[in-house]
Amino acid sequence: MIPFTTTAKQKVKVYIVAAAMNQAGLSAVFIEKAVSVAIEYEGMFDLMELWLEESDPSDRQGIEADIQDVVDEREEAPPEPLKKPYVRFDDLDKIAKDVKKFKNALRKTVDRWGGISKLAAETGIPQPSLSRFFNSAAMPRRATLYRIAGALKLPERELLSDWVA
User: In order of start, what are the domains of the chain with their CATH numbers?
Assistant: First the structure.
């Protein structure tokens, strides 16, 4: 993320958006994390402004999912660049199938536990973000898995594997 220095006026705007998010019923944890990132990252500042200007509820939910993605990226960012393992192009289809199989099994566990709505309430992850998480073959983020594991009271070893980014 590119460093961003907010002005006093921009900080006030972030707090105004935070108050509106609170009025809209978003979780305090979600709002606090969004605010802390927005103070340092212009992309998040822009997303929060966009959220405030949007009146369509489904579009707002999409923006909330984008905000959650930025928060998750920020939480997962290592203090310095890491050397990632090399993944061969020929292996991507198999990995995607493994990811979907894992997410489908996790979704069944979530459904038995109480469902996506309850998971959203327990983790502070907006429901659209969780839906996107479960419906894609994208590599799950560790921060997301840790939050889900915490809510479901699952041990880490049940959620993490070699391909978890």
Answer: 8-76 (no CATH), 89-158 (1.10.260.40)
